[in-house]
Amino acid sequence: METTPDPPPPLPPPPPPPISPENDAALSPNLNNSSEDQSSSLPKETTPETALLESPEDSSSSHQHAPPDPNPAAPGPPRKRRRRKKFFTELNGAASIAARNRRNDVPKDSDVEALIAISVGFPVDSLTEEEIEANVVSAVGGSEQSNYIIVRNHILALWRSNVGAWLTRDRALQSIRSEHRGLVDTAYRFLLEHGYINFGIAPPIKEAKLKPSDDFERGTVIVIGAGLAGLVAARQLVFLGFKVAILEGRMRPGGRVKTKKMKGDDGVEAAADFGGSVLTGINGNPLGVLARQLGLPLHKVRDLCPLYMPDGRAVDSDIDSRVEVSFNKLLERVCKLRQDMIEEVKSVDVPLGTALEAFRRVYKDDPYEMGGDHCFIPGGNEIFVRALAEDLPIFYGRTVECVKYGSDGVIVYASGQEFRGDMVLCTVPLGVLKKGSIEFVPELPQRKKDAIHRLGFGLLNKVAILFPYNFWGGNIDTFGHLTEDLSMRGEFFLFYSYSSVSGGALLVALVAGDAAIRFEMMSPVESVRRVLDILKDIYNPKGIVVPEPVQAVCTRWGKDHFAYGSYSYVAVGSSGDDYDILAESVGNGRVFFAGEATSKQYPATMHGAFLSGMREAANILRVANRRSLLPVDRTRNTTESDDLNKLFINPDLKFGSFSALFNPKLNDLDSIALLRVKIGGAVMDSGNLYLYAMVSKKQVMELSQVDGDENRMRTLSHNFGVSLVGRKGLSSAAESIIGSIKSSRSNLIQAENGLIHQMEMDNS
What we know:
Oligomer: single chain
Region (Disordered): 1-81
Largest sheet: 6 strands, mixed
Shape: globular
Protein name: Lysine-specific histone demethylase 1 1
Domain SWIRM: 107-208
Mean pLDDT: 79
Pfam family, one: SWIRM
Structural class: alpha+beta
Keywords: Chromatin regulator
Radius of gyration: 29 Å
């Protein structure tokens, strides 16, 4: 690789004051039974240049008191993956030269910007795979790459300094030397299309994202699932110029993120998160941006976590600390032992519980860990879901049974209806894929089916109890409890106090592992009684009375037909590579996959689901752009769509998002009419998505009397048994009606023109 002297880097002037870690919140469900050291996102294994970027604020770490491990011998809640991304570093002498030059010449502002980029997931002096695939530089390595990285970091930091506003390309250009305009265009486009900037739910950003970024029509994408991955992907796809329809089996968005308002007769109430609950790591996580945009106050989960014996006695804090130190030492030895075993005998695998988190690098930062404090969100995490789902075209109550895909597109069958598109994005939980609830035609590749089988899907349930008042005290947010039966270590091993953020005296008890499976076989009454017995053993000896609950709710995620579990994890026989395999598209770019189980970096987290949605939106765009370069005759389809749109400018009947064209040759109520439904409302103003159906004129009249589009859709599906299809899916009978209407209106126009001409002749 040829090396040339580096020109001066495109050093920007000082940007607006960079965000502090405390201002950037991250969101993740509490799916881990053991606490982890929360350190800054800067890796401790540093190159000479990364050492330059360290600062006292970012290199410190805060240690959290570790709650008990409920079941170390069995696969419990997942451990964060410790595998590094595949970064492409500079391989020639210019790399070290550039590093030394930057160490001496680059002002501190650029180092701060580099830290922000690191917290988001970018390497210090290299490109990510995504950037390589996007051809952001003409060649990997050298001065162009070094300059690009500085520009990219600056643009990223510039937007992070004010996430409530839309960052324009011109604004980014203002602080970069004019000779690097090309790099600014490249970096800005990459960050925008991959969702690193200008994302979220601040009003200016939502308004801009509701309209495509250009006038180029890129096709229709059917999104299966309205969880975080599906919602994020859909918003980004609309912005990128796609028509989108989301199919959701539940009657609500959010998937495994669910907040329920609990209340009693005396006015006591609280918001309880039944799924993802704790924001783990408030630095660099994109969901933290949403919290900032909404102005949500964050409550830091305090480090104090008392631990209680099975009989309710408190574990001595000194003993607890010594056990924790011993555990960490044991952990280090087990990690080394397991690695030696793998190197010695290639086929040997060790269960995660037995290896005691073999993938953790003891006493060092995790490059895939979101640094910062753990926090609660007042009002529950469904706040994010509601904001992301607003104005999106979501079809609720549509359980997907089959996905057919081929060279000409995809057909998705859901609850008796047929949805056609160019591509489909499947975001259902791994448990649904394991269950085989969705049939793929043709079948998924064996490679992907094997990965689905190998990966584990764990279970975590909760008992949420609302009390008339807080009897446990306001100085703690968590406390742990041990059990004598080793097989039931996961039963109510950890308690969360939400009294400071939920609006009421709310306690949530967690149950994981084998205990979570048995939990779903017990009656809710028995489960609540066991929790109350534990609380009485702890507090009654202190002279504190445990009052009767106002309300209690038990989750059953294992029996939920839209989840069949809670989180993915690396089971015995699987590896982190299986996450990547699950994320691979199939059908030559027709079927895509997103969700936490496709995120090797952040599995089993809400931010992992969020990032996977952004990732696949960019992948879909890349495939669509590649496909658009192929010579395809689109004239016929475009002409047909334009003609039909012209007919619906003046429909025979219009109500809500529905409009209808009647057969001009027949006037009875049993005659066939063409019904069109506009999907998405405001979100689809530029490039609307329309679906069609053949119904009788009588049914059209009945639909017009139903209140609300959602009720009309339900009537159409359940009462009339009618399926909606795209323009290409219309039958020959529909084409016949369209032809009759066109002919009739054409004759009418000719007649009107003739009458006008005759009147002009008479007047002359």
